[in-house]
Amino acid sequence: MKRRRNQLLILLTVALLGSYVNHAQQKYIDKKGKIVFEASEKLFEEVKAKTESATAILDIATNQIASLALVKGFRFKNSLMEEHFNENYIESDTYPKAIFKGQLLDFDYSTLTSSPSEITVNGKLELHGKEKELQTIVRMHKMENTIVMEGAFIVTPEDFDITIPRIVRNKIAKEVQVQLNFKLVQK
Amino acid sequence: MKRRRYIIIATLIVTLLGIAAFLSYNYMYAPHRDIAKEKAIAVLSATALQEKFANSTSGNGNWTNEVIEVHGWISNVEQETTIIVDNRVLVDLTPQEQHLARTLSPGTKISIKGRCVGYDDLLEIVKIDQAVLLNP
User: Fold this and answer.
1) Confidence band (pLDDT; 50, 70, 90) for B79?
2) CB–CB of B118 and A73 under 8 A?
3) Domain contains A14
């Protein structure tokens, strides 16, 4: 009787451990995600910034995706532009991060191959203390143990209550193009 | 006599315009901060830094954009350029020193100076960029 109980206990432990390990394997992470945004106008100095340290986490069991970029991690070519962006427009001392939380629609990891497939992502982007619903298409493919995700979408400063002063209004595009490139590795 | 005065005034105006142009150019195209030359406002361990950020209510820690010195043990080096210290701090070196990251091995002691970018609550780590290696 006692032996049986022990056996049961062992079985239970193994099962629990198994599910834990399984859980850990569902997550794909990129700690060095690239995000570029650009709002350049022709004939004026380029308004473009890049970060190479955004975080992205994809859970392939639930198809949930979360991404975080620290606003101060965005670097401009022009230091004054970077300063104005941080202090006057995006107010990064008060709102230090940009967060996206969403869901991949009709995505099945097991069918992912080395040739890119287009996946729709639906979620919310939070920035400057404002949230915005966002739906976009990303291209995803598998490269050895990595899931590569590339995409682009457009947002506007008004979406996030960011006002551009009149004096620079014609030097900054009304639409901001955002590009992302994540290489997610199993964790 | 009158002509001479004109010349003096004209030279003055041109010089002033030149100075104004020079100053405004310097203002508009000022170089980026040189973190390596700045003095750190604090010296602390990777663990202490992460706890400071994790426990701050704003998740800001008031140290974002400040230059700090951090020490700890290397957990691992990722993608050849990024150093993870004590699993709590992620360090990106300056472009000049980036190639040194691959020479570092996990388990060794490290000390760096860099700019604090902020706290990543998805990974629960503090991010530092534009860092330079110091002698541990």
Assistant:
1) confident
2) yes
3) no
